[in-house]
## 1
Amino acid sequence: MLQLVDFIARNRFFLVFVLLEIFSGWLIVRSNSYWGATYFNTSNYYVAKTLAFSNSAREYTRLGEINSDLANENARLNALVATLSQKNAKDAPVGYVPDSAFNARFTYKVAKVVDNETNRTNNYITIDKGSADGIEPDMGVISATGVVGKVRFCSKNYSIVTSILHPQFMVSSKLIRSNEIGTAKWPGKDPNFVDMVDVSRYTKVYKGDSAVTSNVNAVFPPGIMVGKVKSVTVHPDQTFYNIVLELATDFRNLSYVYVVKNRQLGEQETLKQRLGDRR
């Protein structure tokens, strides 16, 4: 307290000068309409700037929450799109009506990527959801832009995903324009590109065409983006094209993914097992 009194005493003339300047400015603003309008316009401008900065800072601190909300909304929309695409399949014959259980067999759960490999020969991804969240091995994993991989191992709170950037991972894919089905697999080189094999050279393949997951797939819903045709080559003695796809998913910037559960997969696998036992 004594220091404050001492400060005021030592700087009393300067403080009186500042107070008089403020009082003079107030009188000018009050008595002159031009300067009054200028003052209020200027003050409103800087107040608006300050509020905008404050709101931006507040929104920045909530980005994690906002991203999580968007991921959950995307999961809901993915389930809805999968249901509608099955119900309104363009290639279904007249008279075929899939039941509601088949339409809604895929469900989605949001997970956050906590570790991601892209530069190894065999690449894996770690997510923050495990068996406690209903995650099981062999479930498909996608991103907001396309196919990511398949769950391999689960602990209580985490899961290891075999990335599409793994030579042993393959996914049945279909070219949109030519309607040809092949298999997408990574050749173990560039993390931005995969090969699409087993597409007959006697059909027309278009550069830039989209490759999506096919209907011949129990792990992924049909229509999930895999990539776009980057190049198409064929040798005279080959029966199939050499197709290179540019991946739809940017694996270097993965943040949230969606674990896909086929609720009828167990039934399908049981039937296959019974068939195998009788052969």
## 2
Amino acid sequence: MQDILGHLQRLGMSGYEAKAYVALVAAGRPVNGYEVAKRSGVPRSTVYETLGKLVARGAAFEVRGAADATDYRPLPPEALLDRMRREFDGSVDALRDALPAVAGAPEGHLIHNLKDGGALLDRAEDVVAGARRGLVLSVWPQEMARLDGPVRAAAGRGAEVSVMAFGDLGDLGGPRGGERIYEHRYSAPEAVLADLGYRLLVVVGDRREAVVGGFGGDGSAWGIYTADPAVALMAAEYVRQDIALQILAERVGGDELNRLFATDPGLLRLLGRR
């Protein structure tokens, strides 16, 4: 019940309106204000005002009851939710055009810290949802569990999706649509985790915004979001280079790649081994 009330409030109802509407739905028949107050916990002093607001928003209707009294019945839940969806989508579409028109020129590219794992995944999901042309991810199964649906949706709307997976994604790995998923085998995920000490998450949308962060084994998390295209490009290239290395290892073999890394002067210098 608390979940229902919370969702109705997030969609624009006040706490009293949500309680009164749920009471009307649960009654299964027209009821008067006194009974709504008794069923919902809305104070009798405000129940008729609350019902009036539901009627004004079209979520309830007045009907004539016994002795010409006024009873109330709800708009059926399916119809209410369809109406709310239409109104919400209409507002989003209007704001999509209107807000950029009044926005001032930014003084600099947005960048901010993400203080915990929830904020990090929320912002990562925002980047995935905003991607229209390209989406690049470096991700572990724990975080892909949250991002899988939005990633599939991005591929479904035509974004080119490339995923570097540290570990077997299982059901999260397929069947897929337009995504290209590469499992990191050249360095075992356990070795990467032991080396870094955390699970690195990189999400880049359209090479214009990025989330980079890490999840520690103790439940800690850190991260940043940036809309700086230069930083986003670097983050995307980091993942693409990792994917390229994985493809190269599969083509020439891990042993040959290890030999090159151990003997080539240029690679040794880049790796800081000489």
## 3
Amino acid sequence: MRFDVITLFPELFAPFLEAGVTRRAFESRQVDVRLWNPRDFAEGNYRRVDDRPFGGGPGMVMLAGPLARCLAAIREARVADAAPVVLFSPTGRRLDHAGVAQWSAGAGAILVCGRYEGIDQRFIDAHVDMQLSLGDFVLSGGEIPAMALLDAVARLQPGVLNDAGSHEADSFNPALDGLLDCPHYTRPEEWGGRRVPAELLSGHHAEIERWRRERRLETTARARPELIEAARAAGRLDRADEAFLSRLAARL
């Protein structure tokens, strides 16, 4: 799959693409990332990419022209590929695991990283197919959301993680019925006066799996109760799950 990223700061991506386990996906081109700077498509001696907003107000707005010319060059390089254009914006749909799973199985996209007060709405109306958001907060630009999407997609590619089943134990994964993950422990068995739960040391696989299931249920019920309701509505909770949740509710 291929992601073309339109950004005024391509240098921000270099360490991200070269570090950590996900670099395998980028180095192998399983996730092929191409960086494009709209300043290279700006006109005039100053290569201007922004200007003051009509109607007044603070900040600057990115010009539609350089972005459109940059996009046209990407389209030409992709050889008539109908890749969707994605803008990271507070008005976008919140990115979640289901969305990441869809992107990870697709052919890629063209990611637009806005800056300053935003992008001229005429470019958005003419060219943007989808807007995505990481949550209800504002960042200085779209580069961090773009990296978040690329990282989430990369780790789902075959062979990227050391253990092929690692991502199946992630929070929100359908393999865990959409629940949050359970706590994890490693050596030593005692640290700071706290011991590893006895169930994890028992060697009894069924007991370990039940402990992990109950911790997932407990963690989710405390932090994201709406995910419990979603799992219940989807028929993903069995009698043992419901019995545990009833005991848990009595303690809360």
